[in-house]
Design goal:
Layout: E1 13-16, E2 19-28, H1 30-37, E3 47-50, E4 57-59, E5 62-65, H2 75-86, H3 90-100, H4 102-111, H5 116-129, E6 144-145, E7 158-160, E8 165-167, H6 183-191, H7 193-202, H8 206-227, H9 234-245, H10 254-265, E9 281-285, E10 292-297, H11 304-316, H12 324-338, H13 345-359, H14 371-377, H15 379-393, E11 399-401, E12 407-409, H16 414-418, H17 423-461, H18 466-478, H19 485-489, H20 497-511
Parallel strand pairs: 3-5, 6-8
Antiparallel strand pairs: 1-2, 2-3, 4-5, 7-8, 9-10, 11-12
């Protein structure tokens, strides 16, 4: 297709790119642009179309509008509709601008030099492509926001006098995933989770809080390895836990990520450390041929330096003005899609969650939310969230297998990792953080408080070393508050029947509180 050319915009259809519509309707906005210009981009999670009835509704991944919303069947008409009703999809916009070339965009601005949508489109063209259009600086028109903050989460704005817009994009051209405002995200933000956590720990004695924090830290470290299917020695789990406990103290850059990779890998005799020099994928191999069967294909090695620089810029820039949990989701899931290392990506991905939350002071001092433990409990939901983008990205990557059973990517894929819809990821991470505040933190504090009371009361009854007290408490928890015959015959044979009954009664009383 020649620059600026497109096939005719679609009429009413029942199926669009293998996706059924709720009823026959005319694709508009991003759907129309993707189809007419043949854009090789991830299709947005929600598309827009003009239905035959005077009713606006959403169903099956479609937002249907009424005939009065139908835009002109032109590039400008559909672009304006997209910005007005669908928000910004930077992957679609960048691919579109590359196909149209500069003149159609410049003509749109010349036709409406003070138009708010024309100036936003002009800014986005120059920002995404780093190419200046042959246009003089704008001199009239009120400043307008690039991102509609009522539709998508945005950063603090910076004036762009050339376009007379306020740039509030939550990133840079090198890395700028975005998230839509949803009822779920609005509700999580309105809760003030950080304040809830601080109020909760304020009621916990300092010594008990310190022990709670140590347990949760170890729990998170162990869970992060378990998610990867690993069962490392305890000393390795503890070392990684110590690293998590220091999250947020150092800025994220390539050197820091490589330092963390060395720690998390441990024995690196069979692992290449540092940025990948070959392709990468997540998936399986065909048992007969050894051919890769990818579920996700990582960024090309030649793109890694620029992509990691984009992550760094996000962490030090726009992330500081976004909600901490939202910023953590964007940074961490962006990292795991890029998959810059041969090994250790999953654990570093979860470390980045801790990094942002700690750096922004979201956690109560000295406390780490056991996010990995919650992820492990919700592992199927976690994988589904990862797939919300991976399954749309994979068909756009052209690749061939290598003799070593790896993949070699054949097309330019860098933008696929720069711009993705982080809404599902943010909702998932908020739910995980809320779970730690609502369940894990209170439960662990209550457990330790119960244990301390049990220990004190049993010691008043029987003189027993701490090691046996720990074992006694654990046996009672595992056996529904009763000592098994085996325990009575072996480890606790010295207890009288009366002592055993009184100990069981103490445990039952404390557990009922």
């Amino acid at each position: 297709m020649e620059p600026g050319q497109c096939k005719p915009f679609s009429e009413a259809v029942s199926v669009f790119h293998d996706r059924w519509l709720p009823e026959a309707a005319i694709p508009v906005g991003y759907a129309a642009l993707i189809d007419a210009f043949g854009l090789a981009v991830p299709v947005p999670l929600t598309l827009a179309a003009i239905g035959p009835r005077h009713k606006i509704y959403q169903a099956d991944g479609w937002h249907l509008y009424t005939p009065r919303h139908q835009p002109e069947a032109t590039l400008g008409g559909h672009l304006t509709f997209a910005l007005r009703y669908e928000g910004l999809d930077l992957a679609v916009l960048k691919a579109l601008f590359r196909v149209t070339g500069p003149e159609p965009i410049a003509d749109m601005v010349r036709a409406a030099p003070t138009g708010a949508y024309a100036r936003r489109i002009w800014f986005l063209y120059e920002w995404l492509l780093d190419q200046r259009l042959d246009l003089p600086d704008a001199t009239r028109g009120a400043y307008v926001l690039v991102v509609d903050p009522d539709r998508q989460w945005a950063a603090d704005s910076v004036l762009s006098p050339r376009h007379r817009v306020k740039n509030n994009l939550p990133g840079t051209p090198a890395f700028c995933p975005m998230a839509f405002r949803t009822p779920a995200l609005d509700a999580f933000v309105a809760r003030g989770l950080a304040d809830e956590a601080r109020s909760l720990v304020a009621e916990v004695p300092a010594d008990l809080l310190a022990r709670t924090a140590a347990f949760l830290l170890l729990k998170d470290s162990r869970s992060s390895f378990a998610i990867e299917g690993e069962d490392p020695p305890q000393d390795r789990v503890q070392r990684w836990g110590q690293v998590i406990g220091e999250a947020g103290r150092r800025p994220i850059d390539e050197a820091e990520l490589e330092r963390l990779q060395r720690i998390v890998i441990g024995d690196a005799r069979f692992v290449h450390l540092g940025l990948r020099t070959e392709g990468g994928f997540v998936g399986e191999h065909d048992r007969a041929s050894g051919t890769p069967i990818p579920d996700h294909i990582s960024a090309r090695p030649e793109d890694l330096t620029a992509l990691v620089s984009g992550l760094t810029a996000f962490d030090r820039g726009a992330a500081l003005s976004l909600d901490p949990v939202l910023a953590a989701a964007i940074l961490a899931f962006g990292f795991v899609y890029i998959h810059p290392f041969d090994d250790g990506n999953g654990r570093l991905h979860r470390y980045l969650i801790h990094h942002v939350l700690a750096e922004r002071g979201f956690n109560p001092p000295g406390l780490v939310f056991p996010v990995s433990a919650v992820i492990l409990e919700r592992i199927d939901a976690y994988r589904q969230v990862l797939e919300t983008y991976s399954r749309r990205l994979l068909p756009l990557v052209r690749w061939r297998p290598t003799a070593q059973g790896n993949v070699e990517v054949l097309n330019d894929t860098a933008d696929l990792y720069r711009y993705f819809d982080a809404t599902p990821h943010a909702e998932f991470l908020f739910a995980c953080v809320a779970r730690t505040i609502d369940v894990d933190l209170p439960a662990e504090t209550a457990f330790l408080r119960t244990y301390d009371q049990f220990k004190a009361r049993v010691q008043g009854l029987v003189d027993m070393p701490d090691r046996l007290l720990d074992l006694l408490f654990r046996f009672l928890r595992q056996n529904g508050g009763r000592l098994s015959k085996r325990a009575r015959d072996r480890e606790f044979a010295a207890l009288t029947d009366d002592e055993a009954a009184r100990i069981e009664a103490i445990f039952a009383e404390l557990s009922a509180r």
